[in-house]
Amino acid sequence: MGLPVVAIVGRPNVGKSTLVNRLTGMMAAIVHDSPGVTRDRTYRRALWQGRDFLVVDTGGLVFEDDSEFLPHIRQQVMTALSEADVVVMVVDGQAGPTAADESIAQWLRQQPTPIVLAVNKCESPQQGIVQAAQFWELSVGEPVPLSSIHGSGTGDLLDLVAEELPDLDQVDDAEEIKVAIVGRPNVGKSSLLNAFVGETRSIVSPISGTTRDAIDMLAVRGEQTYRFIDTAGIRKKKNVQYGPEFFSINRAFKAIRRSDVVLLVLDASDGITEQDQKLAGRIADEGRACVVVINKWDTIAKDNYTIYEFEKKLQARLNFLDWTEMIFVSAKTGQRIEKIINLVDHAAEQHQRRVTTSVINEVIEEAVSWHSPPTSRQGRQGKIYYGTQVSSQPPAIALFVNSPDLFKDNYRRYIEGQFRKNLGFTGTPIRLFWRGKRAREVERTVNRATRVKSS
């Protein structure tokens, strides 16, 4: 990843995610009183004393227990430790040393990675020194008393971490395409992420709701860097109770907003559900580029017409995403996985594309010649004076007309269709703003004043 890595490890519910939020300066990790909220390893960027590094949050480490997700969590912790330059072991100062802490300390002492011991939940500075002193018996270095909630002691912790970081030149941020992977629970989002990055980055399980937090992962293809964001499965709102799942879904919605391209993953065996339609609508409303990925295609009995029939059903039920491209894949077998990247590249390119005003007006002129604007009952006909692109991501075009009220939905869809037919914009929504005569006069006045000032 280019930056030094600091892994945060410890038994469940000692405040690892709260510490990650404090060190990275954002509410990045989901925090809840119940153990086992964090399962996968999640990467967040941090800065201290001019040094950039990545903080890796991990699930609670439990040895000698193979129930539920614990074996997968152990594997994720071990992977995080293998790539870490420094490991921060977090313990609970209020609970004191436990047998689980001793097991983790013994395991860490066998690793070559430098260890910094963080004694969390030391809310009182006076009592914190006494609480931290108990942890000398773990033999993993000086215990640092701190409070992740209040922030006290975290500067001392970061000073010790910075001393252990390797000396590296400043790493420039690469231009990256942010790709959010969203869908209902258990449609194969985490399997797709693992297939993209070529490792077990997210825990995959048939149990619905395995992924809790939004998982970021960088991958490089050629000269292009991608940030894949695996998200929690999004269920119907009425089925979601307040707690970890509630926060997980909110993180998934935020992932859509901060992405350039969204991979909407569908389960081929389930078809297109009502929840899939709502997710598609949300992607369109947020103005994100999109690729529809139909996963588990290997489980479908097929003939020469199967794929065409499925495409027709999908286009009918997701008609507001008729500008997207779709691909039928199997994350399990790897079928067509690499082709998704090509569709992502094209959608991202179209999402940030700009078209000159002269080309836009050529399309308008041709569209009007084939289908004149409607006329009102009072005999007023709509007129489109000109159009110009005002922004990108998504592309937005302002159309200056005599009266927006004269242009009903049917004609507006016709004009949008002409833009897509002549200019493409495949994979991205486009926004059309219909501005009346007054807006046109205001723009002319502003442009005139700008020219006078520049001269």
Automatic annotation (TrEMBL):
CDD domains given in the database record: EngA1, EngA2
Residues reported in the UniProt entry to bind GTP 1: 10-17, 57-61, 120-123
Domain called EngA-type G: residue spans: 4-169, 177-352
Molecular function terms from GO: GTP binding; ribosome binding
GO biological process terms, semicolon-separated: ribosome biogenesis
InterPro entries: G_ENGA, GTP-bd, GTPase_Der, KH_dom-like, KH_dom-like_a/b, P-loop_NTPase, Small_GTP-bd
Stored Gene3D superfamilies: 3.30.300.20, P-loop containing nucleotide triphosphate hydrolases
Top-level taxon of origin: Bacteria
Keyword RNA-binding: no
Ligand binding (GTP 2): 183-190, 230-234, 295-298
Keywords: GTP-binding, Nucleotide-binding, Repeat, Ribosome biogenesis
Function: GTPase that plays an essential role in the late steps of ribosome biogenesis.
Family, as annotated: Belongs to the TRAFAC class TrmE-Era-EngA-EngB-Septin-like GTPase superfamily. EngA (Der) GTPase family.
Assembly and interaction partners: Associates with the 50S ribosomal subunit.
Protein name stated in the entry: GTPase Der
Organism expressing this protein natively: Acaryochloris thomasi RCC1774
